[in-house]
Fold this sequence. Notes:
It comes from Trifolium pratense. This protein is α+β, with helices and mostly antiparallel strands and 240 residues long.
Amino acid sequence: MGSEGNLMLPVLDFTKEDLKLGTNSWSSTCTSVRQAFEEYGCFIVVYDKASYYELQNGVFSSLKELFDLPTETKQRNIYEGKPLKGYVGQHPKIPLHESMGVDEGTTLEGIQSFAQKMWPNGNDKFCKYLFEYAKLVKELDEIVARMVFESYGVVEHYDKYIGSTSYLLRFLAHKAPEQVEPQLGFVSHTDKSFTTILHQNHVNGLVVETKDGSWIDVDFSSPTSFVVMAGDALMVRIYI
């Protein structure tokens, strides 16, 4: 799979000073978000917050420490009755892929519970960085959701939606393929959620399929670029 032609995802800047609720900039961005979801199912957002670079360095350093743990330790990442929320790896169909998840990942308690499974004495630095990162991404997700609800004229349901939303914080690693190994990091899929927000470190690898069957290689053009994807729950609403 690779890009066809010069297709590119829309890029929206959420760090503009005038992007405030009730402004013209907010209204036009709401429209851009809706159009991007309807046309591509996703878009790139630039979300540059103060001290983000320091946070990002801490997050990726902590995740390297996590993925360097022995496999049997990482396999402790289990949620009873929720097999897709825990450890995934060592699978012959996706030999390059390894991932772990934190249920209730925007809460300090959820992150601390995960850390205690990985490190017997916990890991305060890991918890600090990941909790701050999770709060930032949750904030971004809530902005996107608000824009979607406004754009479709159902903003009165936004607070109820936010109040009923919980988050899975997932970490993914893909090893470099050997010459004889397949290049595919993970199987083509959609997410069951309302939205998914993705962020990458240094190496581009995400490819998305448009509604007409074209494929686009996603370029995370800056460290503050995130990809916001419509999950199945939102796509049902878009195409009703």
